[in-house]
Amino acid sequence: MKFHVTTMGCQMNVGDGDWLTRSLKSEGFTPAPENEAEIFILFTCSVREKPEQKVASELGRIADRHGHNPNAFVAIGGCVAQQLGTALWRRFPMVRLVFGTDGIAAAPRALARLCREPGLRLSLLDFTETYPERDQTWPDDRLPPRAFVSIMQGCNNFCAYCIVPFVRGRQKSRNLDAVITECESLAARGVREVTLLGQNVNSYGRDDAGDGVSFARLLDAVAAVPGIERIRFTTSHPKDLSDDVIARFADLPKLCPSLHLPVQSGSDAVLKRMGRRYDVASYRTLVGKLRRARPDILLTTDFIVGFPGETDADFRQTLALVREVGFESGFSFMYCDRPGTASEHMEPKIAPELKSARLAELQTLLDAQLAASLAAQVGRRTIVLVEGPSRRDGPAGPSWRGRDPGGRIVNMALPGIADATGQLIRAHILQAKKHSLIGETEADHD
Ligand code: SAM
Ligand code: SF4
């Protein structure tokens, strides 16, 4: 049968979607565009209100388009599935499978069973004690050069605003051997860059589920996998970023000089109410250490504006921190109440108009910093890992799209190369666009 995967939300969902696609292919299912598919798999997000509403509209849209087909059905994974569970069956009759993050390992078998037994509905919503290992027998297809590798599930931090610990359960680290086996298997299929994924990768190993290996040791082991040329990781909680991990930015050439280090706010008072357990001074200290370890490190972050009680002075401190740290870019969100979280009951709530005004001001500043950073790359030499053809051809014919070590997108023509996918190319940056760079091979330049 043909299936179509739609992914909303964070990179954990993207990683889960990629794994399920590989796994279903090895079970004989075929990935297809939405108009040809009969099984619709949705990875959902409930971290904020907007993505949660998107799930309902997506389900309505699928029902309108495919509801007439008696074989068509929907499987829902991710945070909304865990949160609403089998209530989704009642609201959306096309839904025949709901699975949480710990249930995904059993999803391929469940989908096969649903195809054989048309009257059946299934739910896979239990949390497990240990990391539920997933089948790794994939087809021998060549994979894209970049892949996500999950190293843990869940989170123990209970930041005041966050629903994740409720819908993804407590932290469970995966065993080192399983992570390395997956990296080797990906490298054998053409993967050159892995992004290690977890809600708080810096606390990898600090729970009862895994084998107790630290995140720094895991980085060493991944760097030793032949064929893997680049390593990234996300997400990092500042309170758990150890000196050992910072030292790896100096010691491991394969570890890319980029780090997503969500700060959320530049005000100590707000950080305290958020329950983040670091202050601005300690964040600043981390930035200093990172820059000493790797002067070219590119820092990105997350912000929440309009957290309950956020004053104008608090917000100005956030803007000041953005300028001081020189973040390359950041995801910024308006605070929204999530059910069951501590901040749901915190007052005073900030008026929606004020939240949007602050968001707009912050995004304008972040856009300006990104533009300045991209402009500063012009004239520099770098190495680009080519991911595939660019969306559009360049003036001189076909163009290829890849990333520099910092993660910036670089488009470039590569005359005479039939397929550059997966190659590491020495490049010279010619021009900065709004969100990307244009380069040429060093050979052209010399
Ligand atoms: N584990 C990561 C961390 O600690 O930074 C990220 C978790 S969350 C999936 C991604 C981002 O969503 C957070 O960094 C935060 O900025 C934002 N977020 C989470 N809950 C939110 C809420 N209730 N309202 C607005 N933004 C929220
Ligand atoms: Fe949510 Fe905080 Fe855990 Fe990140 S660390 S997932 S923000 S509770």
Summary, kept brief:
By secondary structure, this protein is an alpha/beta fold. Helices cover 35% and strands 22% of the residues.
Strand composition percent: 15-25%
Number of strands: 19
Distance from N terminus to C terminus (CA atoms, Å) equals 52 Å
* Helical percentage: 25-40%
Question: What's the topology here?
Answer:
Elements: E1 2-7, H1 11-26, E2 30-31, E3 39-44, H2 49-66, E4 73-78, H3 79-84, H4 87-91, E5 95-99, H5 107-116, E6 122-124, E7 146-150, E8 152-153, H6 164-168, E9 172-173, H7 176-188, E10 193-197, H8 215-223, E11 230-234, H9 243-251, E12 258-260, H10 268-274, H11 280-293, E13 298-305, H12 312-325, E14 329-334, H13 352-377, E15 381-389, E16 399-403, E17 409-413, E18 424-432, E19 436-441, H14 442-445
The structure holds S-adenosylmethionine and iron/sulfur cluster.
Tell me about this structure.
This protein has 446 residues and is an alpha/beta fold. The chain is 35% helix and 22% strand. It contains 14 helices and 19 strands. It has helices spanning 11-26, 49-66, 79-84, 87-91, 107-116, 164-168, 176-188, 215-223, 243-251, 268-274, 280-293, 312-325, 352-377, 442-445; strands at residues 2-7, 30-31, 39-44, 73-78, 95-99, 122-124, 146-150, 152-153, 172-173, 193-197, 230-234, 258-260, 298-305, 329-334, 381-389, 399-403, 409-413, 424-432, 436-441. The strands form 5 sheets. A 6-stranded parallel beta sheet has the order 2-1-3-4-5-6, sandwiched between helices. Strand 13 (298-305), helix 12 (312-325) and strand 14 (329-334) form a beta-alpha-beta unit. The longest helix is centred in the last third of the chain and has 26 residues, at 352-377. It is globular and about 60 Å long. The mean pLDDT is 94. The structure holds S-adenosylmethionine and iron/sulfur cluster. Iron/sulfur cluster is lined by residues 155, 157-159, 162, 164-165, 199-200, 237.
